[in-house]
Each structure stands twice: as structure tokens, then as C-alpha cells.
Amino acid sequence: MRTAVVGGGLAGTAAALRLADAGVAVTLLESRSRLGGVAGSFRRGELAVDTGQHVFLRCCTAYRGFVERLGATGSVTLQERLDIPVLSPTAPPARLRRTGLPAPLHLAGALLRYRHLPLRARLGLARAAIALGRVDRAAADDRSFGDWLAAHGQGDRAVDVLWDVVGIATLNARAGDASLALAATVFQLGLLADAAAGDIGWATVPLGDLHDTAARRALGAAGVEVRRSAKVRALVQEGTGWRVSLGTEAEEELVVDRIVSAVPPGAAARLVPPGAVPQDVGALGSTPIVNVHVVYDRAVLAGPFAAGVDSPVQWVFDRTPQSGAAAVYGPHAQYLAVSLSAADDLVGLPARELQDRFLPALAALLPAARDAAVLDCFVTREPHATFRGAPGQAALRPGPRTALPGLYLAGAWTDTGWPATMEGAVRSGEAAARALLADRVPAEVAA
């Protein structure tokens, strides 16, 4: 059985590896010159720049297994215990740091000492957290997270300096715009069910080394034919199989038995025959992410990352080791990336305006930056970084099977139960592969 996987992001790569491991002949088609999708990197001169800052949690078992399958566990790191410095331009730093106590007591001390909230508001956090842990995710998608928080005594201040600190980075949406079901998934699985689940991990190399170089090596070893710069124009059902039309000068076509479409929802709707994807899938929409990259002549941030409150800075990450900045700018330079999720109001602004806004904001958060020289500053944007995780979106997210035999869907936008994260992308690819294999062989063999 020949199978084409269309799309070389994390979903497509995960599907291709799962199928190849089961003995399926797989051709992976990616329109870009690299794999990795929105979780990749590029070169800016000699500097390695990630297309966006991506992290994972200890509870992201599918993504962590994916990294292991790539043979790249040495290219990621994971905190021993969750520890998030939370900086403000008007108050001393606070930390969201867990203890060794079992959940949900592991965060009790950090919340009681959380100086960005008055004591009375801190006392109310525990009650809201316990209630959030009991939310039925299957019945919560039509309500916004913000409405739920307000109904459970969480004022605007608590939302701004605590709930959105975690939520905006994982949901790519502010609480008022986010589905309660998706928010409950993040907080229940990441923070409330298991004490260690929320420990943060990240790549210690450029994402391209992980999701492109290591991925191509693993795919090749598994026998997958990888074709980059292969733009698919259409997927056409033909008898019991499929024809894949490629946008090459020779108008090349591939004839295969099965297809996994692992592209964004808009692209999927354009590629597949009518009726294969729900007509309202376009209503999922998209949400942008913007990154402001700043190189200083000295270290201004202690530690790998920090969150910001009372500031336009949401999260800031030290990218110096992964990027090779020392070789480009000198041994004392530090390269920071400011990650801005739910960036609808920022994505269209000129780079100069973003620099004028965020350089002073960084100096306000990081005292050492006030006297440091800025050696470089630039902006990257992902206008359609994720689907829009708004209330009511669950009904628009299809499962891996389509109405057409032999055609399967993958992508973080499909029905994984997770928001649009690396974990959700990998889960979707594996779900599509499992569905394809289960339709081919008895369920007990596919498992």
C-alpha cells in the first residue's frame, strides 16, 4: 500500500513515521524547502533564528515520544521543577515555582506568595483552581474561559497577572477569547492533575536541527521518501486510490492508495475534493504570533526565560546558546526573543514601531538592559500561527477520518482535544496513522 503524506510539519512527520514503522510505503510531500512547519528555523546571516519560540511540558507525552523517535532527546531539556520568574516594571519579581508536594498542593506556596496580587485575591486562587480541575471539558466548549473565571471570583487583575500568564502562551488567546474546554485541558493536564506535569521543556538547538535535520534523518532511516519543495495542487479520488497533482513544470502526478493531509485547514479545504472536509472548517480562523528579537552587548536576562506582567512583554527567552549569537556578535552578547501570542493588534505594525514599543518595555522589565547597547533588533511574524481557539470551535474540528475512503486528516487544528500546540500536532498525526492502519488491518494488529 502506497501512502502520500501531504505536509511536513510535526503532524505530517509524526504520521509518516508511524506508518513507515508499520510497514507502509510512504512519500512525504512538503511545499517548503524544509520540514517543521511553523516550528522550524532559518538563517539570518550566520544567526540561527527560530520561526517562533516553542516550549513543551512534561505532560506532553506524544511530543516527547516524537523527539525520542527522532533520536534527538539530547537536543531538548526539561526543568527539574516548574519555575517561572514573573517580572513587572513596577514591582519586585515573583516566581511561580512548584514544590515537591503532590498536586494541587505543589503550587499552594507560590500562589500565596505571589506578590503581583493582593493577599485577598491570592486566597481566592486556590478555590478557582480546584473548581477548574473539576470542569467537564466535553461540555465546556461553548463558554469562554474569561466568563468562567469571572463567575468564580477572578477579577481583571488576577486574569492579567496570573491566568493569562499561562493561558495566552498555550492557547494563543486571552482568557476572554478562549474556549473554556481548551483552557481546562491546559490547566488540568498541565498544572492540576500531577505535580510534575507542568515542568517546562525546550530545545537546546535551533528548531530546524530538531524538526528538519533530525526528522529527515529519522524518516530516511524508516524508508520514507521525503520530497521538499513539492507543492501539491490537488488531491483527486480515482477508483479505489488517489492521484496527487504536483505543481511542477512536468505537471507530475503520483498515484497512491491512501493520503494523509497534514496541512492547515484552509489549504486542506482547497486541496481535497468537495465534501471531504466540513464546509464550515474555514470558520476556525487563525491567530497570529509575533516575535521581537533583540541582541544586547551583554547579559541582561538571568535564566532561560521569564514572563512579564504590567508590560507589553508577555514572555522573553534567552536564545543565545541555540542561535550561535556569540560567534556573530561576540562572547558577551545576549540574544533575547520576545514572544507575543494573540498578536492580532501587533502583526500588521511596522518593525520600527514594534521596536520602539518593545525596547523600552524590555528596559523597564530588565534593569541590566537600561545601560546595555542594542546590537541588533528585528521582527518575525506568523500571521496564521494557530487556529483560533474560541468558544464553539470544537464542533468545527474534524477527526482523522473523512467522508472519502482512503483520505485522512492531521494537523493541530483537527479534533485532538488539545489547543494548537506541538503536542496537539503530533497527536493528530499519530491519530491519522492509527485510523489508516485500523481501516487496513484488524484493530488488534494495528494496535
Task: State the end-to-end CA separation.
Answer: 18 Å
What percent of residues adopt helix (DSSP H or I)?
25-40%
Task: Give me the count of strands.
Answer: 20
Structural class: alpha/beta
| CATH homologous superfamily assignment of the largest domain | FAD/NAD(P)-binding domain
Poorly predicted runs: 443-447
What is the global morphology?
globular
CA-atom Rg in angstroms: 22 Å
Describe this structure in words.
This protein is α/β, with parallel strands linked by helices and 447 residues long. It folds into 3 domains: 2-41 and 208-284 and 396-446, FAD/NAD(P)-binding domain; 80-198, no CATH class; 287-386, Polyamine Oxidase, Chain A, domain 2 (Alpha-Beta Complex), CATH 3.90.660. It is built from 14 helices and 20 strands. The chain has helices spanning 10-21, 61-69, 108-112, 119-133, 145-151, 156-171, 180-192, 207-222, 265-271, 320-323, 325-329, 351-365, 422-440, 443-446, and strands at 2-6, 25-29, 41-44, 47-50, 55-57, 76-78, 83-87, 94-97, 200-203, 225-227, 232-238, 241-246, 253-256, 258-261, 287-296, 305-308, 315-318, 334-340, 374-386, 407-409. The strands form 5 sheets. The chain has a 7-stranded mixed β-sheet with strand order 8-7-16-17-18-15-19, with helices on both faces. Helix 1 runs parallel beside helix 8, helix 1 runs parallel beside helix 13 (422-440) and helix 4 packs across helix 7. The longest helix is centred in the last third of the chain and has 19 residues, at 422-440. The chain is globular. The two termini are 18 Å apart. Mean pLDDT is 95; it is low at 443-447.
